[in-house]
Amino acid sequence: MSIPAIDEAPLSGFHRKLTWACAGGPFLDGYLLSIIGVALVGMSNELQLTTGDESLIGAAALVGIFVGGLFFGAVTDKLGREAMYTVDLAVLVGGSLLSVFATETWQFVVLRFVLGMAIGADYPIATSLLAEWVPNRHRGRLLGILTLSWYVGAAAAYVVGYVMAEIGGDGTWRWMLASGAVLSAVILLLRVGTPESPLWLVNKGRTADAQKAIQRALGRTIPIDELLVASAAEQSVEKNQIRDLFEGTYLRRTLFCGLFYMCQITPMFALYTFGPAILDSFGLGEGHTSNLGSALISIVFVLGCLPALRLVDRVGRRPVITWSFALMVVPLVVLGGGSSLPIGVVIVCFCTYALLSGGPTVLEWTYPNELFPTNIRATAGGVATSISRIGAAAGTYLLPISLSRLGIGTTMLIGAGITLVGWLVSVAWAEETKGRTLAETSALPGRSRQGSEADAPQAKFARPTP
């Protein structure tokens, strides 16, 4: 059941503030995962880290995201979005501060794992909260902004790392890690006072609280009878359990969301964590200039997201994701030529890949929030995130090994193969959800959330050819 007062509301200052507050989590994710790639240069020299140590430190956060998404998504569906919304940011502040004082490899691995858990928790918390508050016609774009903020955070990390390294040398790596605590504290303050999702409250039968939340956020008094109808509809729907994500149509949707997400970020996370090392393999590693090169690529990723933000709500989700994946394969295949390629070709290929990746990027959190009902929405988002991080963690761990044993060309071709799998998954399973309410998009084919025969056609998804 949807709430018309939310689905049809005009975009307001509350929606914009909520979007930026929710985007703070992905921003910190991009920042924290990228700043470690810059800091590793100084860390390795001072702490005499081995290649294996670097791989463990680089992959620990991704393993933490897997655990955090898998566990805290379900907790968010049970306890509420608001209850978890600020706790995870507090963990980011504490974990970043403690990283400044770490001296052993195992300490960094543990702290990066904890930071990853907090980030993994934030994905289903923030995205489900935003999805349940924003109007239908703006949902794809606003959820896409959350993903875009990841790249902004990554670019900021490389710029900050470059400036610190140029001013104070590689020995400033501890200050680089400390900068994450400052940013986390700022975003934590921005989130204080955010109201609970009315859709979650209605799902739990708390109609009076939902009425107060809507009044507080949108300045509109919704008749309690309208919310009682919505609550009755939610209560009449069979309550899904976590196991339902792995059965029937929900299994297909779970696999789709997790696999396309994984194929999108496996090459990307490896690129960001070890961006300077990759650019150095192509001959772009003089001094600290590789950090600026990584920042440039991050900015291009942001630019690639901008047209995709408009297209997902105008053209539709399915054509955007299928065409983007298909075209993303091309520059990675060209990069398979290895270190013999002209520098100009390398930069053009990386920038082309970054521009084209905007499609699947802005849909990473849109699809999981649209394809599953309220009582398992955050759980599904967490599971999708966890599936994606299996590949991301493996790719991040194996990338330095692949660079040293297989070479840069073969490594890029492996990335092209992973991207091709993302295209195949999208062609087979991507559904069209543009312009529909969450009640309609999350309904199983042939059955509406209200369960009436008259509404059944609305629950079916169109699947236009790309």
Task: Write a brief structural summary.
The chain is mainly α and about 475 residues long.
Main sheet overview: none
Under CATH at level 1, the class stands as Mainly Alpha
Instruction: Label the overall shape.
Output: globular
Question: Which stretches are poorly predicted, pLDDT < 50 over at least 5 residues?
Answer: 448-466
Mean residue pLDDT: 82
Strand content: under 5%
- The figure for the number of domains is 1
Distance between the termini: 30 Å
Radius of gyration: 22 Å
Under CATH, the homologous superfamily reads: MFS general substrate transporter like domains
InterPro entries: MFS_dom, MFS_sugar_transport-like, MFS_Sugar_Transporters, MFS_trans_sf, Sugar_transporter_CS
GO molecular function: carbohydrate:proton symporter activity
Family: Belongs to the major facilitator superfamily. Sugar transporter (TC 2.A.1.1) family.
Organism: Streptomyces botrytidirepellens
